[in-house]
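Supplementary notes (optional reading)

For those who missed the lab, this is the record we used. Protein: Glutamate racemase. Length: 270 residues.
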Amino acid sequence: MTAPILIFDSGVGGLSVVGALRTRLPGAPLAYVCDNAALPYGTKPDAWLVARIVAVCRAAVEASGARALVVACNTASTLALQALRECLSIPVIGTVPAIKPAAHASRSGVFGLLATSATVSRPYTQRLIGEFAPDCTVVRLAADPLVAQAERVLTGMPWDDAIIAASLAPLWEASRLDTVVLGCTHFPLLREALERHAPREIVWIDSGDAIARRVAQVVSPIVSEATRDAPGSDASWASAPQQSGLARTLASYGFSAPRSLALPDPVLTF
Ligand code: DGL
C-alpha cells in the first residue's frame, strides 16, 4: 500500500484543495488531519501557533505514515513552514496567498487579499506583495468571521448573509478593485456566497490548483489507479473528531470517519 499524502488544516479549509489534488494525482492515497479543537488559528498568537502546528503535524505524520505533508492553511504556512521542515523528514508543501497570479489577472492593478488577520499582517505576506505585486494596490482585509461561516456551510448549515456582507464591505470601497485573492483555504468553500455578495464581476483566485501542481512535482512518479483502495477509504484524523457534521463532510470528500489525534503531553490548549 502506497503511503498517503497528508493534508493539514485547522479545520475543513484544507478540503478546498482536495479536489485539485485528486484530479492531478488520480489514484494517490490521501489522508486528512484537522486541528479543529484549536480552530480558528487566525486569531491566535504566533509563538503558540508554531508549537501547536508542529505538535499536530508530527503526530499526524507519524499516525498516517505519510510520504508528504501539504500544509493546506495559509495561516500555518506563512508562519511555520521552516519549523515543520526542520522537524520532519518528508517533503512539506505550503499554501501561501496567490499574490503573483492576482497581479497578472488584475486589469486595474487594484486587488484584494482576503485572509485571516494573522495572514494579512505577516512579514511573509508583505514580502510576497513586495516581490510579485510592487506596482499594484493591494487591499488587505482580515475576514476571520468567514472561517466559521465556511465551517458552518461545509458541515451542513446555511451561511449568514449579514456576516458575509459585513466581512466583504471594505473591499468594495476600492472602486477599481477587480480581483480578490482567497488567502485562506476556508474561503473557496464559500465561493457561492462571496459571488452573491459582490457588487460587480470579480476574479476570485485561490491556490488549490497551484498547490496540486507543486505536490505532483514533489511526489512523482504518480501512483497508478491500481494501487488505490476503495473510494472513501482514505484515513482522517482530528483533534476534536466528534464535531457535528465533520464525519459526513469528510466522507463526501472520500475520507473515512476521523480518528482522534493523540497529541503529546502536555497538550497545548489555548
Ligand atoms: N484555513 C486556514 C487558512 O488558510 C485558516 C483558518 C483559521 O483561522 O483557522 O489560513
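If you only remember one thing from this example: The longest helix spans residues 46-64.
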